[in-house]
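Intended use. Records like the one below are meant for learning the mapping from a protein sequence to its folded structure. Do not use them to infer anything beyond what is encoded.
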Amino acid sequence: MIRALAKLFIIVCMCFSISVCAEEGQVSASQKRYKYQLDLIGFTPDEVDIFSGIALSTTDNVKATLIKEETKLHFLKILLPTKSMQFELSTSVSPSQFREQMSRLFNRMDVNVETKFIQQENLFETTRAQSPYTAQLFVLWSLIIILLSGTFLVVFWSWVQFKLNLYESGNQSEKWLRLVKTLQLFPFPFLCREKWQKQLPHWEKRISQADIWYDNAHQLLKNHEIESANVFVKKSLEVNASNIAAQALESAIAEQLSKHQVIDDERQKFKGLVTEAVEIAQAGNLYKALEKAYLALALCQSHESQNRPVIDLQIDSTKNLIKRISANKSHRCAGLKLISSDQRVHINCGDSMRIGRSPKSNDKTQSSDKQGTNKQGTNKQNSIDLTLPQDTLSRVNKSIVVSREEHGFSARDIGSTNGLWLQYKQCEANKAYFLNEMDQLHLTPPDEIGSVGIQVSRILSNKSICLRLCQNAVLPNINLDSTNNFINPSEYAEDCWYLSNETFYLVCASDHYIWYSELEWKAAKSRHEDSSVSKEVLKLDMKEGVWLHILSNDYEVKINDDRIIGPVPLPLNSQLSVNDYLIDIVLIPELAIDSEVTEMLRV
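Structure written out for the chain above:
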């Protein structure tokens, strides 16, 4: 009995424990929870608030945690916001039940959504099917387009009004007509005012009249009637200023008028220069008259180079005027002297040159001979010979003669008292001895004190020979009681005597002026002596009278303070200035030589 009660008790206890365990299992099963991630995309703030207040309420044993929230403005980034939110949920509702609950809720809210459940991520992604602001955006953008269109039309019409007024005030008929006809093409009748349409015939008539005047101007210009063409083209532009062809024609006519004005001015200038040249020549001022004549000639030649057949035909007459002004003003001379501060050049233009004592040895004018001219411009020793004021020398008419031969130059003693020594050897009287460059001639015995030596500095064919005083003479002691007068060769170091019929050139080398005969200058240029810095300045031509030619316009050349710009004849006595470098020029005419010979024969 007891054993049976014990077994019954055990069975009852086991049943109780089984029932308790079953109830605990049911409780644990009923309390199972799910974790989701919920994304709400593109909802209005009100919709998000309603959904979160109902679906995510804690009354349904839902725990929601906001992870991310983003607001987006749909109209110009200032209006119509939408929200996108991300939640983390913990709930006992199964995914299918939760999805069904959300669908019912959005249906009650009258919102179309698209919901996806991504099982791998436990993610509910709910997106609004269409924008919540479609109607509002349409209305707002429509208002903006209407406003902009109205503003554009108002601005465009105002611009049209302004341009038409501008064209009308500027007489731009063609542009006015083109703009009005363009407005007629638009499907908006209000853009083209009725007033403008009525004015169309008037503007068309103006354009037609302007074209007629333009054609007349073009034809007149072809006929070289420039003034009449200018009148018609101006009329055309007054009626239709927008005619491009008329504008181009006006520019061409203006250019032609400008050229004609310049030519007329130069023609008047030419006439004035010629008139002044004639008047000044009649007044006796040769060089100023020639300056005006050469300026007139340069003006004619400039017209010729520019192909202007207006005054270029006057070139020959201007040259004839220069010839008439300078007629009988050039002097045929037997020689000349070119005397400056650092060079004294004596040129004999004949075929022979005598060497000896001055006609009057006691004449105290040798200093003036070295200086060229006295204050009155005269020279008492105007000789073409090499004469020296030394008493021991024979007279020049019975001394030594240097003559031009067929193949060079020779020296001859024609009866001197002292004799002639060539290269320190005495020469026979009246016998010609050919000279070579650097030979020395002595007019007295070379071993005597005060002996005078002449050195052949340069020989160029039979055209030119240059002589200089030897600088190695031994001078006697000064004796105030002596009746003999000895020269000091160092005083003649700058003197050179030419027997030459060549043209002479003044050359500037490193601001130093030097006279060369023609062959000397050619030889110097062939040897490239100072070729980079040497420049020809002047040329002395002595073939038909003595003429001075300007070879460079870089130098200011004056004769007796009168500017020289072209070839001019030289007077008997003149002062030449080249950039303030002074040269005294003395011409020795052929008549003066004849009188000198007569005087020597009398002595």
